[in-house]
Design a protein that fits this description.
mainly alpha, 7 helices, 76% helix, flat
């Protein structure tokens, strides 16, 4: 780059003004939020760099406000527990002591072991029954919705499409 090009670039930069303003009230507003101070509001009309910074900070403040009002996802606890268990499995694979702890079994009498197996079986049976009932309820709901839809379609046909009964039969909506 020649000397003349460097001087021309410096002159262009001086005409454009500084690319970043350092204003104390902008920094304080960015840290504490709230309404925009009057002096800063006047300044951002003239300084596009500060106006852009205020715009970006306002977006961040609005986004944080929205995040605080949103409920957490329903499966958040299950996902975090799953990740925690995966981490423990990685640690277990990595350390011998953790492997020994996971493999250690207490010496239980047969009747206590039988109770544990019975509890596991009853829990599995209850979960299976619950899933079966839920599936039946969902299928019943679908069937009721289909029947109601057919009734509504037939009523719409009779009232709006063929009120004078010019057609022989309403179409089959199924």
């Amino acid at each position: 780059m020649s000397q003349e090009e460097i001087i021309r670039a410096d002159h262009d930069q001086m005409e454009k003004g500084p690319s970043v303003c350092t204003r104390r009230d902008l920094t304080q507003w960015a840290e504490h939020g709230g309404p925009l101070p009057r002096g800063l509001a006047v300044h951002i009309r003239e300084c596009p760099a500060c106006a852009e910074r205020v715009r970006r900070l306002s977006i961040v403040h609005a986004s944080l406000g929205l995040i605080c009002t949103q409920p957490s996802p329903a499966n958040l606890v299950a996902r975090s527990n799953g990740r925690g268990l995966r981490m423990l499995r990685r640690v277990e694979r990595a350390t011998v002591a953790a492997r020994r702890l996971l493999l250690m079994r207490p010496d239980l009498p047969r009747w206590q072991r039988a109770q544990i197996h019975a509890a596991r079986f009853s829990l599995a049976a209850a979960a299976s029954l619950l899933m079966l009932l839920m599936r039946m309820g969902i299928m019943t709901g679908f069937e009721q919705t289909r029947r109601m839809g057919e009734q509504l379609a037939a009523a719409h046909w009779n009232r709006h499409i063929d009120p004078d009964r010019e057609f022989l039969d309403p179409p089959d909506f199924a």
